[in-house]
Amino acid sequence: xxxxxxxxxxxEGAEVVLEVRNLSAEYAASRGAVRAVENVSFTLHRGEAxxxxxxxxxxxxxxxxxxIRMLVRSAKVTKxxxxxxxxxxxxxxxxxxxxxLRRFRWSECxxxxxxAQNAFNPVLRVREQFLDTAYAHGKRxxxxxxxxxxxxxxxxRLDPERVYNSYPHELSGGMKQRALLALGVLxxxxxxxxxxxTTALDILTQRAxxxxxxxxxxxxxxSILFISHDLALAAEMADRVATMYAGEIVETGTVDNLFYEPxxxxxxxxxxSVPRLxxxxxxxxIPGSPPDLISPPSGCKFHPRCPFATGRCEQDAPPLEDFxxxxxxxxxxxxxxxxxxxGLWDAPAVSPTQTDAQADAQSSIRGVRE
Length: 370
Ligand SMILES: Nc1ncnc2c1ncn2[C@@H]1O[C@H](COP(=O)(O)OP(=O)(O)OP(=O)(O)O)[C@@H](O)[C@H]1O
Ligand code: SF4
Ligand SMILES: [Mg+2]
Description:
Elements: E1 16-29, E2 32-45, E3 49-53, H1 60-67, E4 75-86, E5 89-92, H2 98-108, E6 109-112, H3 126-136, H4 142-155, H5 160-164, H6 173-184, E7 191-195, H7 203-220, E8 223-228, H8 231-237, E9 240-245, E10 248-254, H9 255-260, H10 265-272, H11 311-315, E11 321-322, E12 328-329, H12 334-340, H13 356-369
The structure holds adenosine-5'-triphosphate, iron/sulfur cluster (SF4) and magnesium ion.
């Protein structure tokens, strides 16, 4: 479905740090190939945060693992390119040797995995895990590692000495997640991929993690690929958003583009399924369930669930088209979405357990537009 180029609004003068073109990846399963990522293209700029949103099974984790070549053995990249750029040099990530990959993975591009709070080895103190990680990537100066770790712990608002000398079980979920963020940026990567970094944390802790992340980003200047189910967090965290459906990016643009002027029925459906503060709008869930990625629907993969689908949608896959200012969508009938989205933001969106602070953040997003 997706065209060759996914645009985006480059922050003024910002250089490109990651360029993904027409990337496809699949898993070998007994029934056939699971086409988990199909023809995905996007660009990430220095210091930018791009949020990837979509239902469970839409391919977000597979895409991010493909970017750092950490797919399981049964999976492979079948097409496309991943280029990482630094100081005018360009690395072809899919062509790196194992040795080059080891350096790339933590020093250039780090990933905080989905459900990673249990990633710490329970029998090793936190300090040993930081030292091991640094050592494995060629940093053998223990004094440097300690100094850097304590600085990072301060930045993520942890008590540095206490946490450094703790065992993982002595830390709460939120503390472990902060320690993982610190571990992610230990070797000063240019790109950090965060796969559902706040899932399984209570709402106040989520809030604190998002604050910490924003501060880290502004202090350290890395770029973020932020994967989330939570639209409010994505809106708050990101500069740009990409909606993923059945392995494809179906819409991408600025936060304002996607949240206030969605052009794809699936993005609209996601927004409509978020509760409102006033409770004034009925929640509308997206009918049906995500397709089988071994034999996805013909034409537009969303057509069996789409309220605007026509015969054309069943036959032909729509290309990802630029609607101006880097707002791209893959849909034959965007004009129907424009009509249907009227009134979408009459009341602010809020998750059922959202704090006042998050509601304020939502209001401020609305304020930017109004
Ligand atoms: N090891 C695997 N073997 C076969 N299929 C897999 C495997 N891992 C994932 N898949 C399939 O690939 C597709 C994409 O999965 P992926 O985990 O990337 O989605 P996701 O968007 O990250 O979902 P979630 O939001 O639940 O984390 C799904 O259809 C999933 O069933
Ligand atoms: S209107 Fe057609 S092309 Fe657009 S999302 Fe629905 S099914 Fe796909
Ligand atoms: Mg996932």
